Prior knowledge:
Aminopeptidase; 9 helices; alpha/beta; 2 domains
Amino acid sequence: xxxxxxxxxxxxxxxxxxxxxxxxxxxxxxxxxxxxxxxxxxxxxxxxxxxxxxxxxxxxxxxxxxxxxxxxxxxxxxxxxxxxxxxxxxxxxxxxxxxxxxxxxxxxxxxxxxxxxxxxxxxxxxxxxxxxxxxxxxxxxxxxxxxxxxxxxxxxxxxxxxxxxxxxxxxxxxxxxxxxxxxxxxxxxxxxxxxxxxxxxxxxxxxxxxxxxxxxxxxxxxxxxxxxxxxxxxxxxxxxxxxxxxxxxxxxxxxxxxxxxxxxxxxxxxxxxxxxxxxxxxxxxxxxxxxxxxxxxxxxxxxxxxxxxxxxxxxxxxxxxxxxxxxxxxxxxxxxx
Length: 337
Ligand SMILES: [Zn+2]
């Protein structure tokens, strides 16, 4: 025992064991693990996901018609290609709830495990960012664009990290990753359907690409990156919670309660305590067009963080741990059991 502990000390300080004098034979190799026929479930890397959140913000706001929007579109298409997905891009034009001008938009989709058995799962997030920070505490900043670190980039970052897993270990069932455009340009006074929110996902469900299978289930992630800390620059506006909490979004709970229960149960087993068994708000979001067409669709969302639709929605107010709670839960859902 004593000799072994000396060996360990030498190893720990990086010295050659032979410097102690006599020849030392290497320790025997540990017995081989029995080979597992099913590949281990991939793990979610929160730091890498956070880098993808920052990378999107580095393009600047991804509001309609901006250079940041065009660059992020190309970035996401490349990432889908790099992950080995069967990629479908869907271009369309629309005015928005915030502008009567027509803009170019793109939904980006990637299919993984096309030939696998089982129900088709869609994972979605919106990648556009809001053109006006109309909830900003400073009235002078309410015409400025939102950077969308949380509202936009966080959901996309979770899906980009999941795509890395899909490229390494193909999911055991078909999975479509969807990046929706034109989600976040609504306004209460808009005459557009759904007040000009969720334009991209509405367009997709009404113009389904024939290359892709129709999804049986849909899981949306939106605003899943908040750091859960009080931010004195914005205070705690009505409806906002400083804490990062994922209540059960109300449309999801009403129309897909079993799916909500399944996901929240997995999160609880994994100890991801942001998931709360409480009914939240009804949120107009990209899961709605799918629910309306009979898809079992749910929304994982923090509604709302204090920086929501302000100029303070920046990476400094986001956290890798929040991305991890959601991404790890989704990986367990897809690969577990
Ligand atoms: Zn938003």
